[in-house]
Specification:
CATH superfamily of the largest domain in chain A: Butyryl-CoA Dehydrogenase, subunit A, domain 3
Distance between the termini of chain A: 72 Å
Largest interface: A-B, 164 and 165 residues
Radius of gyration of chain A: 30 Å
CATH architecture of the largest domain in chain A: Up-down Bundle
Protein name (chains A, B): Acyl-coenzyme A oxidase
Shape of chain A: globular
Oligomer: homodimer
Pathway (chains A, B): Lipid metabolism; peroxisomal fatty acid beta-oxidation
Organism (chains A, B): Sugiyamaella lignohabitans
Keywords (chains A, B): FAD, Fatty acid metabolism, Flavoprotein, Lipid metabolism, Oxidoreductase, Peroxisome
Number of strands of chain A: 13
Number of helices of chain A: 23
Helix content of chain A: 55-70%
Number of domains of chain A: 3
Cofactor (chains A, B): FAD
Largest sheet of chain A: 6 strands, mixed
């Protein structure tokens, strides 16, 4: 008996041991956790310090951990079956979770704390997160934002504050209208005789559509409808409309509701459609903080129309942070896997190479890891801008028009800033999920490693609460407007403050300075962004002043340019925010590593946009070859710390929910066990064998036709 | 009663009519089919001629239509429930379809005809297509490619030719090894005493994984395993291994099989895992066309190792064509929807604008439409190269080494060419599905418009049968090698023939010529591609000759550059193939439109890679501003013909399977009806209301704790 077959007999007894065949050692199964452990041991910084940096301090990390532990222990959040549930099963589970999430929200100590809790729940079950989010984040926020104090307290007294005998949804979009809210066609006609509104869906295309919670859950909706008084159309306002009878959940008269059914992702949320057939509600159900109507049908419009459309901005801001959250999860999976997986060997006869060691694999994962760190810094700044602007607006009296105007200017800056950041962060995260999936090869396509479900659940962020393309074009329009303001000598908001230095930025060049100096890099970004905006303003002026186009025609003509300047300005913003956050908050133990990460992000971003740096002359072609070399070098530096950098994200295996991404790196064991656990079968014979497989495999042909039998003798 | 409320009462009787509110007409529901019809009427070319052009002639179109009609009429392919089936339901349906598809294959008149039929079935049900594809495309192709004539006829006699009491699968990848086939760890140890092989899985990481058909269907597998003879490892060879007892489908002794379970997409195919525990098979079950072993254990290796790994190439070639097929479907949906959907109005008071009229929307859809046309031209060329190379190889005697070497050179060229085209076409199609989904806003996220399922089913093409990144890097390596050959004065394959003109291409510039001249554009592409390759060859020479790196170290160091040159060379190939196909096959009636489409594709591609055109000086910065203007202009031209260009794809509503993409453009009606049909509910109350919704909404708090009761009096 040969030594190889002896060895194989041995292995039959212990299938997890290593193998030696023809003198070559095969330890594919046992090596991965050791490989990951070895990588972890290279970490040169204090991982805990970095977690504090990301979370915004020790206190915040500890609060996160308290909530995470509570979720992880709670049987209702048990998630082993997450990838195997059908749409209907998912709905049942998400409803059960909604009850628990409600407890978590009611126990929160502040609005920020609610955000923290929801954001963590959103990582575990995006469908359930959305399901409760439509009530608190859309219905209740909408009532708070657009209703009077009396209206808010009325609806809270009916249960809207704690979801008792009450569940709100948000009926804005219609099947025929999404982004253009002002074009909605549902009508709310005032009937002076009864002091009521008649809510009506005039035709099928005005059916409320995509309404989260409408199909199964909601008792009330915040309906966007055209206010019609005495035949006059006052445009779209907000109305609370009861949908179901509280005590038996049956539909109110005139309400038709249906289930939107299968979606790409987030099946846990029961999106539905609603048609109103002349449904009557009291006049007082119209939200009247800014718009008012009295019993005689006299309408008072708000001093500034923008005030009415603020309900979505909070969601937009949190999506920048959510982009970071979801990116954390998938980067952790792919980077751990890359540190544990080997494939091909560089030199024949040597062990196979860890895929994390391949230059191109590093380039796929590590600049995106760096991008996620950048997103976090930008998200934090955006939250600050958001809380400051909304606090100011909330504390401003509606009767003081000058103060209101100032508050609205801040909100407008917030709109433009959040538009670009929301769009590019949600796209960025989608691209990160997609790239990390592909970086795990076939195992990335398995349902159990989370990428497919994660992508499907995520990408709706690129469309809802402001379609990314529309937001981007709108942010681009704002940038042109800022450029025009500057030419008139007016001041512009702080986010575009660098445009004030246009003249010096136009002259900026590398000029022999160190490409790796963060100051130089930031100057490069500001120079290119400012010049791209300025160039587009030139084109705008040319189109309007020389070619005779109207402003809106010129904006339309410059759509591609608007998209591009919004993109480059936003990237510039993230690069700056990242370096700023390091300067302000990084402790000495993590500063060096973070700076490497930020440099990788900034250099890789330059490489991706090299045409602009070339066009505006900050770098020449040789400089850009150097940038490519530096990206390689910084990939290699960051690679050494990559496991520490993902460990710092502080997500437990429960939150990772992907066996190839577990902390211990024992990828094949966890993955195999998960697949077997979720797909038990003793005989590997499908239940449809007798009904449809055997009849096919054992089919007989009909006898051959012998036409001679048909012939006359 | 006001006129508005009168009108509304009227509408309650006829909810599909148009509405006038406050003098403004609302015809959102009734207008879409008219809008689409109006666009269709603009078509200035013969749509039928264009279909012939795309299909490769009238005869081919008619054959396609015959098959399409047969599929569409066949109740087994009824697909209204496609998006609602669970994984298990999908498996049952796909098995039933496998039987029918088998009939279609057996009735085909040639290999090309099989491709045609499978490709159309793949549009309807990618899972079922894969399920039967693993037998015919992998198992049987593998036996044909690697087996002797006797082996092939033996397995055909056992039912492999017509799937009678036989179903083959393809056990190549293992959980621990995918792309690196040479590193697989399953062993096939020769036992001279019994003239058998012992097939064994030495440890868990060598478990065969992702094996399509293994979980439920296959009776046999083509197993990749290391040939071990007398303790010596001869590397990976192919063995037919019976998995199940034919008559009751139970597993053979020593075979363990399990279900891989949930995947991102293609749940219709039962991917499984297999472990072999010392399974014995006759020596004659090893495929022995190139590798041979006699009963004494004498092994003959093939003259050229590449011969053994040819099984995947056919799949790779067909994926370029499949990329076009899938792109057709989603482009048709999004472009029809864009012609029927209105959103915002350019000027207040005017009707809303069709979204197809927005500059940016045109830029999202139309260059990608043009790209799909380009893919088609490249796919056709690739098929020609494929059939010519494989025919040559098949007709070459294995004993004639010189002839074999020549045939293998052709196969190598095919490998490199198909690698780049497979990678960038499958990525391109994935991006097209993703962009077209987003271009349909929220409705793109609905399960019923097909994008989500389509994306999930599609993207595995980027990973399987050669991971795109690995293929791209390998294509990049070939390009550097070609560049090195040229410097040595050797000839290179025709796909890189333009490198022979490097010297003149280096000097090429626009020099006042017309940017819109196809000849100039092709020269621009060749110039940039040749120089990018040449620049990388310079870097390679520098690394190996001056910096002392080995060739493999230098290739590794230049990974990013390899990726980039493969990308740019492949795009250049597609641009050239597109213009060539127009020159050779476009009839006068379609030539003008096709040339506009090709120009849009080529100009848009230049814009996307403007840094290279700037770097190598073919265009300057002002030229590139012009390119952007031309892209806008050509978007507008192609926009006028966009409906005709998608109609020419010739996909019926059945094949489109997305209500917003139907031929008649009645988007809201079809979409609403589909959603209601698939989600019937009379009371909109979920089945879990009593069990989990009511207890939550009507929950009572425990009484408040009064600690005073616990205090001592």
């Amino acid at each position: 008996m040969s030594s190889a077959s002896q060895r194989l007999q041995q292995l039959a007894l212990n299938p997890t041991a290593n193998v030696v065949i023809d003198g070559k050692k095969y330890d594919t199964y046992t090596e991965p956790p050791k490989a990951l452990g070895g990588e972890r041991a290279k970490t040169k910084f204090d991982v805990r310090e970095l977690t504090y940096f990301l979370d915004g301090g020790k206190d915040s990390t500890e609060k996160n951990e308290t909530v995470m532990e509570m979720i992880e222990r709670d049987p209702i959040f048990e998630n082993d079956d997450f990838y195997d549930l059908s749409k209907d099963e998912t709905r049942v589970v998400s409803m059960a979770r909604v009850g628990k999430i409600c407890d978590y929200i009611l126990a929160a100590e502040s609005e920020k704390d609610i955000s923290r809790r929801l954001s963590l729940i959103g990582l575990v079950d995006p469908g359930a997160y959305t399901r409760i989010g439509v009530h608190f984040g859309l219905f209740l926020s909408g009532v708070r934002g657009g209703g009077t104090a009396e209206q808010l307290s009325y609806w809270i007294s009916k249960g809207a504050g704690n979801l008792k005998q009450f569940f709100g949804c948000f009926a804005m979009t219609e099947i025929g209208h999404g982004s253009n809210v002002a074009g909605l066609e549902t009508t709310a006609t005032f009937d002076e005789a009864t002091d009521e509104f008649i809510i009506n869906t005039p035709h099928l295309a005005a059916t409320k559509w995509w309404i989260g919670g409408a199909a199964h859950t909601a008792t009330h909706t915040l309906c966007y409808a055209r206010l019609i008084v005495k035949g006059k159309d006052y445009g779209v306002k907000n109305f609370v409309v009861p949908l179901r009878n509280i005590h038996d959940h049956s539909l109110k008269p005139g309400i038709a509701v249906g289930d939107i059914g299968k979606k790409f992702g987030r099946d846990g949320i029961d999106n539905g459609w609603i048609q109103f057939s002349n449904v009557r509600i009291p006049r007082q159900f119209m939200l009247m903080k800014y718009n008012k109507i009295d019993s005689q049908g006299n309408v008072t419009q708000p001093p500034l129309a923008q005030l009415a459309y603020g309900a979505l901005i909070g969601g937009r801001v949190s999506m920048v942070s959510d982009s970071f959250q979801v990116s954390k999860r998938f980067l952790t999976i792919a980077i751990r896997y890359a540190a544990a997986r080997r494939q091909f060997s560089a030199v024949e006869g040597t062990p196979e190479t860890k895929i994390l060691d391949y230059t191109y694999h590093q380039r796929r994962l590590l600049p995106r890891l760096a991008y996620a760190y950048g997103m976090r810094a930008a998200a934090e700044e955006l939250y600050d801008v958001y809380y400051s602007a909304t606090d100011k607006l909330a504390s401003t009296s509606t009767s003081n028009k000058a103060e209101l105007q100032a508050a609205i200017e801040d909100v407008k800056e917030l709109f433009s800033l959040s538009a670009g950041l929301k769009a590019f962060s949600t796209w960025g995260a989608a691209e990160i999920i997609d790239q990390t999936r592909q970086a795990c090869g076939g195992h990335g396509y398995s349902g159990y490693n989370g990428f497919g479900q994660g992508y499907a659940d995520w990408v709706v962020n690129c469309t809802w609460e402001g379609d990314n393309n529309i937001l981007t074009l709108s942010a681009g329009r704002s940038l042109i407007q800022s450029g025009l303001q500057l030419r008139k000598g007016n001041r512009v908001g702080s986010a575009v403050g660098y445009l004030n230095r246009l003249d010096s930025l136009k002259k900026a060049k590398l000029n022999g300075r160190d490409i790796l100096d963060p100051k130089v890099i930031q100057e490069a970004w500001e120079s290119v962004s400012a010049q791209a905006i300025d160039h587009t303003v030139d084109q705008f002026v040319n189109l309007t002043e020389k070619k005779g186009l109207t402003a809106s025609q010129a904006f339309e003509e410059l759509s591609q340019q608007r998209f591009e300047i919004a993109r480059i300005h936003t990237r510039n913003y993230v690069v700056r925010a990242f370096f700023d956050k390091i300067a302000h908050s990084a402790t000495p133990g993590i500063k060096e590593t973070l700076t490497e990460v930020a440099l990788l992000f900034a250099l890789w971003s330059i490489e991706n946009d090299s045409s602009l740096f070339l066009k505006y002359g900050f770098f020449n072609s040789e400089d850009l070859d150097k940038v490519t070399e530096h990206v390689n070098t910084y990939c290699k530096k960051v690679r050494e710390q990559a496991i520490g950098l993902t460990d710092a994200f502080n997500l437990s295996d429960f939150f990772i929910n992907a066996p190839i991404g577990n902390f211990d790196g024992d990828v094949y064991k966890h993955y195999f066990n998960k697949v077997v656990r979720r797909n038990p079968s003793r005989d590997a014979k499908p239940h449809y064998y007798e009904s449809s497989m055997r009849p096919f495999l054992f089919r007989e042909e009909d006898p051959e036709i012998d036409v001679s039998e048909l012939e006359e003798d």
